[in-house]
Amino acid sequence: MNERSAGHATFVIRRSYAATPATVVHAFADPATKRRWFFEGEGWTVDEFTSSFEVGGREHSRFRFGNGPVMCNDTIYLEIVANKRIVFSYTMTVAGRPISASLGTLEFSADGEGTRLNYTEQAAFLDRLNEPGEREVGFRELFQALADEIERAPADA
């Protein structure tokens, strides 16, 4: 591909969980828990996953679906407000080619006995190798996997 491009998009996902904000945030902060719901799933192989959940901390993952190309996700945590907000930036590559750079904001608020999650992503999609609609669908699937993980976990982990 000789023609280079960058498309920009923002999307918002709102979701409710039947768990406290502390429990939902724990699923992002705890490396073993996050690996289960965020990277592991039917057909996925996780080759590498490291996480340091702190401001300035980094998360790196290398994974693939089936016999597909290696994908990498490299994240930097920019702000963490306990049980309220996580702001991070991340890049994605497929077979060594950059496909996107994003800023993500997770906001958590108590909603009765549960949690309201608002996720906003602002992204640059590079060289038409990924599209905003695909990314939004992917995050909706991940947030369902998070709900499944929370249902399996003990209350207020």
Automatic annotation (TrEMBL):
Gene3D superfamilies (UniProt xref): 3.30.530.20
Keywords per UniProt: Plasmid
CDD domains according to UniProt: SRPBCC_CalC_Aha1-like_7 (cd08900)
InterPro entries in the record: ASHA1/2-like_C (IPR013538), START-like_dom_sf (IPR023393)
Ranges of residues in domain Activator of Hsp90 ATPase homologue 1/2-like C-terminal: 19-149
Keyword Oxidoreductase attributed: no
Family stated for the protein in its record: Belongs to the AHA1 family.
Name of protein: SRPBCC family protein
Organism annotation: Ensifer adhaerens (Sinorhizobium morelense)
